[in-house]
């Protein structure tokens, strides 16, 4: 689980909007799409590893993965949520 103090200072590197932990329903939707092989990040790479945690941008448009407890705050690694069924 992410340190709450770290979460308080993290922002989207693109828009500087705050981010928050993705809820269980969103993670379940994303992980189903990952299992189906339909998830691509902004760089166009297929995302193949399910997520235990992720951060969603304040406007709800991008999801940033958290890998091994470390937020990956790179725009190219972000997942556009408008592509998730």
Can you give keywords for this protein?
5 strands; 5-stranded antiparallel sheet; 2 helices; 21% helix; 85 residues; alpha+beta; single chain; globular
Order of helices and strands: HEHEEEE
Number of domains: 1
Termini separation: 26 Å
* Overall pLDDT: 95
Tell me the strand percentage band.
15-25%
- Tell me the overall shape: globular
Structural category is alpha+beta
DSSP E strands, number: 5
Please tally the helical runs, counting DSSP H or I stretches of 4 or more residues: 2
Taking all Cα atoms into account, the compactness measure Rg is: 12 Å
Helix percentage:
10-25%
Can you describe what's shown?
The chain has 85 residues and is of the alpha+beta class. The protein has one domain. The protein has helices spanning 4-9, 24-35, and strands at 19-21, 53-57, 62-67, 70-71, 79-80.
């Amino acid at each position: 689980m992410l340190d709450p103090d770290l979460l308080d200072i993290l922002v989207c590197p693109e828009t500087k909007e705050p981010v928050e932990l993705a809820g269980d329903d969103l993670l379940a939707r994303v992980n189903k799409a990952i299992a189906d092989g339909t998830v691509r990040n902004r760089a166009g790479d297929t995302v193949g590893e399910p997520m235990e945690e992720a951060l969603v941008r304040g406007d709800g448009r991008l999801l940033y993965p958290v890998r091994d407890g470390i937020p990956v705050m790179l725009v190219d690694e972000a997942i556009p949520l408008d592509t998730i069924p």
